[in-house]
Each structure stands twice: as structure tokens, then as C-alpha cells.
Design goal:
Length: 96
């Protein structure tokens, strides 16, 4: 999965259970910009639901975590953000 830094941030926040408007507030974006990113991700990857998108994201995160990141890979911090583990099957917000 090759996504931009912003798209990675958005999907990571979706995985935490945030709604589009909350994602927009957290990232300082308009709701329309967040929807555009999500719509583009759905189109590019053939996803049909947020659940499908989050499941694919978590699989990618777990696959990526099993590899050593390249130095300076900006996506690494997003992949290792406070997102629940696949085994938890809970997609609600976690507390840090």
C-alpha cells in the first residue's frame, strides 16, 4: 500500500474510530478535504467501507511492523501510532 503521509494519517485516525469531522479537526483540514482523501483511497484500493479500509490498513501496519523501516521513512511514525492491534478487534479510540 503506497499512500501519502496525509492519507496515512487519515486512515490511522479512521482506525482509531474517529469520524470524518473529528479527523478534519485533528489535522486542521476541512471536512471536504478529508472526504476527498478518503474517497480517493476507496477508489484507488477498491474499498467499499470504512471497515474494509481499516482492516486493510491494520494488515499493512502489521506487515510493515515486521520489517525494519528505512531511515527517515515519515510513514513509519503513522504506522506505529496509537492504533489498536489486529488481535484486539476493537477499533475504538485508545487512551495514551
Amino acid at each position: 500500500m503506497h499512500v501519502s503521509q496525509r492519507q496515512a494519517e487519515i486512515v490511522a485516525l479512521m482506525a482509531q474510530g474517529l469520524a470524518d469531522k473529528e479527523i478534519a479537526r485533528r489535522l486542521g483540514l476541512s471536512h471536504g478535504t478529508v472526504r476527498t482523501h478518503i474517497d480517493r483511497l476507496f477508489r484507488d484500493y477498491g474499498w467499499h467501507s470504512r471497515t474494509e479500509a481499516v482492516a486493510a490498513w491494520l494488515e499493512e501496519r502489521d506487515r510493515t511492523l515486521s520489517h525494519t523501516p528505512e531511515p527517515g521513512d515519515a510513514r513509519w511514525s503513522v504506522l506505529t501510532s496509537n492504533v489498536p492491534n489486529v488481535g484486539d478487534f476493537r477499533l475504538s479510540k485508545t487512551q495514551s
